[in-house]
Amino acid sequence: MSATSQQFGGDWTAEKLERVRKYLVAYAKIMSAQREKKRGFRFAYIDAFAGTGYNTHKQTNDDFAPFFEGARASDSQRFIDGSARIALKVEPRFDRYIFIEHNASRFAELSKLKEEFAELHDRIQLVNADANTYLNDLCLNRNWRSHRAVLFLDPFGMQVTWDTIASIAKTEAIDLWLLFPLGTGANRLLKRDGKIPASWRARLDATFGSSDWYDAFYQKVEYYSLWGEGTVTETHKQANFNTISEYFLKRLGTVFPHVAKHPLPLFNSANCPLYLLCFAAGNPGSGGKTGLKIAQDILKRELL
After folding, report:
1. Which long-range contacts link 77-81 to residues 24+ away (Cβ below 8 Å)?
2. Residues 3-44: pLDDT tens digits?
C-alpha cells in the first residue's frame, strides 16, 4: 500500500461512500447515453448489504463477529449504511435499484425508501434474502445481454464468498465495488504460528476461492536444535497487509478482465487498516476499460 493512497483516521466510511458516489455519477451519465441509443438497454444499481438504507450502524449475525470489533469505532457509525440513499439521489436515474438485506428488522427500515423516494417507487426492488444466494441466482440465471449494473458489496465482515464473486464476473456485465475485510477479517484469521482452526480455514478458503493462500502467507523454517535433537521445523507467518492485498487482487484477476491495480486502503481513527476498497469490471471490451479508467482515477484522487 503506497503512502499516497493511505487514508489515515477520519471518516473512512464517508471516504468509501464518496468514492462510490463519484463512480455512480459518471456511470449513470455514460449508461444513460447508451440507453438513448439502444432500445431495450437497461442499467441497475445493486446494493447487496443495504442495511436500513440510512446512516445507521450495521450489526452482524456472523460467528466471526468478535474479530470485527475493531471496526466499530465512532467514526464508522454515522455513514456506514448510507449507500442505498446515495444511489437513489444520483442523476441521471438508474432503471432499477435492487437492495438486498437479510435481517428482518433492517429490511423493514429499508422498505421505507419506497415512501421517501416515491417517484422511484416502481424502480426499487427490495429483497429480503441472503446476499450470496440471491446474487448467485441473479447473475447465473438472468439474461445480461442488454443489461448492465454497478454492484456494491459492502459486508460487515467476511460474508461474501468467492463463488459469488465468480458468478458476478461471469455476467460480463457488472462493475463491482467491493469492500474487502483486509485488517478486520483476513489478517486476523491468519495466526502467526500458522495453527489455524478448521472453521477459520474454511472461511478463508471460501473468501479467497482457493486453499493456496496458506502457502502464500506462511513459510516453513528449519533449524538445528540447540539441545542436539536434530532439526526443528516451524511455520512462520510472512503475510502482511501488502501481501494479502496483492494476493486478493491476483485472485480477482483470475475471474475479472479488468481489476484496479491500486485499491484504496481504509483506516479508522486509530490508524488501523480495516478494509480495502476494490474495483473490478466484468465487461471484457471497451466498456470495462472505460469503467476501469474512471475507477482508478477516483481511487487515487484526493477528495476535496
Report:
1. 78/11, 78/13, 78/14, 79/11, 79/13, 79/14, 79/17, 79/55, 80/13, 80/51, 80/55, 80/56, 81/50, 81/51, 81/52, 81/53, 81/54, 81/55, 81/56, 81/57
2. 333 333 347 888 899 999 999 999 999 999 999 988 889 999
Per-residue b or e along 38-62, where b marks 16 or more CB atoms closer than 10 Å to that residue's CB = eeebebbbbbbbbbbbebbbbeeeb
Name the average pLDDT for the chain: 86
Phi/psi at 237 (5° precision): -75, 125
Q: CA 249, CA 263: separation in Å to the nearest integer? A: 9
3-class secondary-structure state, position 281: strand
Structure-block grid coordinates of residue 31:
449508461
Task: For 105-155, give the DSSP string.
Answer: HHHHHHTTHHHHTGGGGGGEEEE-S-HHHHHHHHHHSS--TTEEEEEEE--
pTM over 0.70: yes
Per DSSP, helices labelled H in 41-103 are 83-89
**Cβ partners under 8 Å of residue 173, min gap 6:** 144, 147, 148, 149, 282, 283
